[in-house]
Write a structure and sequence with these properties.
Length: about 80
């Protein structure tokens, strides 16, 4: 079985296109420039924490979706 892992940028682009938004329109809604959206979608730059928060809030998804975290995280025995 082959599991294909999408990058942050691919996931962002898929959500944006699903909502029929241009990069500029999305940028206006979440206070980012079209250029920054393009860089994020092309995985040219890493998103800032505030970018991730804005994107997740706008699309109504968890950061886990974008960060590809395992579903069953285990806490260490001692912190």
């Amino acid at each position: 079985m082959v599991i294909i892992m999408l990058t942050f940028g691919q996931k962002l682009k898929n959500l944006r296109e699903y909502c029929n938004l241009t990069q500029s329109a999305l940028g206006e809604k979440i206070k980012l420039t079209q250029r920054k959206i393009s860089y994020l979608e092309n995985d040219t730059c890493e998103p800032a924490i505030d970018d991730i928060k804005a994107i997740c809030t706008f699309f109504g998804v968890s950061a886990d979706y974008f960060l590809t975290l395992p579903k069953n995280l285990k806490y260490p025995d001692k912190l």
